[in-house]
Amino acid sequence: MPINPFTPDEQQRIVAAIREAEKATSGEIRVHVEPHCANANPLERAIEVFAHLGMHQTKEHNGVLFYLAHADRKFAVLGDQGIDAKVPDNFWESTKELVLTHFVAGNYAEGLSRGIERAGQQLKQYFPYASDDTNELADDISFD
Questions:
Q1: What angle do CA 29, 143, 118 make, to 5 degrees?
Q2: CATH assignment of 8-134, given 2.40.30.160, 3.40.50.2300, 3.40.720.10, 3.10.310.50?
Q3: What share of the chain in percent tops pLDDT 70?
């Protein structure tokens, strides 16, 4: 099973979705992909990856991780504590549902891109882009 299930064009589309979403928010979005989930629960693995990528170090604690274990068909979206303190309980549900509708059809890049776009739209309400905002986390996809 390949570590990277995406074509170069699909990767570029996902990264472009991240960059576009981050234009409207100070939030930081990352995507991490691996074939297999090391934990039974993908949210627990997402928490580990979040820490490994240093995503908790953003100034406003407003990092968002899209985690995908493609061979195991497991997925999670995780927001840092700054986001959790401000958003309603169901904040990520519509994003997850949107992503999963594309995943079921095997369209992982499309699902991630659409989910990232939706997350960016939601994040700008709580963490609008500021003129002095800096890109605190890399926009590229990380792989294990």
A1: 25
A2: 3.10.310.50
A3: 97
- How is the beta sheet containing 28-34 ordered, strand by strand? 74-79, 63-69, 28-34, 141-143
Q: Give the residue carrying structure tokens 């991780």.
A: 65
Domain residue extents for the chain: 8-134
pLDDT at 37 over 70: yes
pLDDT digits (tens, 9 = 90+) for 102-139: 999 989 999 999 999 999 988 899 998 877 677 777 77
Closest CA relative to residue 80, chosen from 118, 42, 53, 40: 53
Helical spans, DSSP H, in 23-107: 42-52, 81-84, 93-104
